[in-house]
Design a protein that fits this description.
single chain; about 100 residues; mainly alpha; 5 helices; binds calcium ion
Amino acid sequence: MHKSLLLLSTGLLATALSATAFAGDKPERCDAHAKKKNPVERLDADKDGNVSHDEFMANAEERFSKLDANSDGVIQKEEFVKAKKDYKDKKKDKMKAKESAKQ
Ligand SMILES: [Ca+2]
Ligand SMILES: [Ca+2]
């Protein structure tokens, strides 16, 4: 019982310390990360704390336009496949850039 309590306390302390250290290093990155993780913050254009139908649909329209690469009003399978590949490539590039920055 004491051992599991100690492990839990150590885990909580480690989490708190790493969160503090992370926040102290790059607060702007944390804000951007939190915004990315929180869909309400990302979609709430007028910042009233809610996502209206219009705000939601504006985002959907934007995403549809990005996927419809040839702007013909429909998303072909190839456009989905290309978008997925582009997303994966972009993610890989980000990871490589992060790795390079560490070295
Ligand atoms: Ca809103
Ligand atoms: Ca299309």
